[in-house]
From TrEMBL:
Known catalytic reactions: ATP + H2O = ADP + phosphate + H(+)
Any matching Pfam family: AAA_lid_At3g28540
Gene Ontology biological-process entries: response to stress
Highest taxon of the lineage: Eukaryota
Phylogenetic classification of the source organism: Eukaryota, Viridiplantae, Streptophyta, Embryophyta, Tracheophyta
Biased composition (Acidic residues): 427-442
Region of interest: Disordered: 422-442
Keyword terms, alphabetized: ATP-binding, Hydrolase, Magnesium, Nucleotide-binding
Entries under SMART domains matching the protein: AAA (SM00382)
A GO MF term: ATP hydrolysis activity
Name of protein: AAA+ ATPase domain-containing protein
Cofactors named for this entry: Mg(2+)
AAA+ ATPase domain ranges (all copies): 214-358
Amino acid sequence: MMILRNILNEIVPQPIRDYITPKVVALFSSYFQSSFTFVIEQKWDFCDNQTFRAAEVYLTTRLAGLSSRELLVGSSDLKNPTAEPNLGIPPNTKIVDEFEGIHLEWTLHSVETKTYPYEKRYFNLTCKKEFRDKKMKDYFTYLAKSAEKIMRHREDLYIYTYNREGSSWQAAIFEHHTSFETLAIEPQLKTTMIDDLDAFSKGKDFFKSVGRAWKRGYLLYGPPGTGKSSMVAAIANHMNYNIYDLQIQSVSDDGELRKILTATKNRSILLIEDIDCGADASRRRQTKNEEDVELQKQKKKPDLGISLSGLLNFVDGLWSSCGEERIIIFTTNHKEKLDPALLRPGRMDVHILMDYCTPFVLKKLVAMYLKIDDHVLFDPIEKLVIEVNVTPAEIAQQLMASKNADIALKGLLEFLENKKMKKEEDTKVEEEGEIEDGETKE
């Protein structure tokens, strides 16, 4: 072999050797090697590879007893820096698994590239050749089901924001503790939401039978400070779903929107807040005169941004089928500004008014913040709550002023009385203005 190698090096030119050598190695390997390797890349077609994602989730449960010289550890828990770090999958480290007595070896590889996404990540799964078909038939199904089970019982939820420079979603631990038990809303709305969410989570077969994507759309609308963000947190905690918070005004066009949205995972919430402010595509269609005025304003501006059709195509079009068990939530302070096409059934399935404080919501907030169920000031405060528009956020702010119930409720009463006086003054000014306008016309 040494003589043969020397002869080849002396006689055969280098380019020919480079061409022949891999083919000879592959030929001998196919006959003499007893192992087979599956390559599982992070990307598959236009979307993330679901098998890769399942492997990422599943293999973290096989790291505790990993016998290697290094381990990947870290924590994204900003609220608890002293918490025990989590284990991550270290690159180029062999992870051993066993399935029905068959020995399996996993290895994560990462290679830098010169084009997007600038890093190619993939798993190698190695087993004996004779078990290749069994792996394809049984093991990958077991892998997917195990990962799904782990995700349903995960302890930490994450909120993602899109990093446009890196073209990727970046995560932080979501520790908003609002639940439907602590959310200050009317009992009927609470029951309606819980029943609807539970029916959705169990509706896979139903959605499939009627030929619809397994998704649900909620529109939360109402004045600022009425608990729209808290409602989102309660939904996420009830469903145990991660949140993808998309600032839609930062999306340049429909193509980028598709790339962003198809990178979200199943069993998640896509949140687009203040949609009436974020994209021209979501706003009410204008009249002819309004269009002419707006056209003159926009003549010198570049034609950028997402279109209404681009947004609707993901909400209710063909692209809505790329993924399942997803909840889409839009929030707005001005429902009337949204294009009617965005509000049709099948796009935003449930419209939820998050309104001003009611007597029930008031008592719920007082019970949570002051730990009392009754007080001598309840009656005058309830009457003022009915007379003036006050948000739950404003009520909560007043209740947090003191842990002493007498002091906190007295401050709340004064706040509501001042709010009532201001309302009466504003009404008086408006009436006087209308009278003056009428006299001027005469």
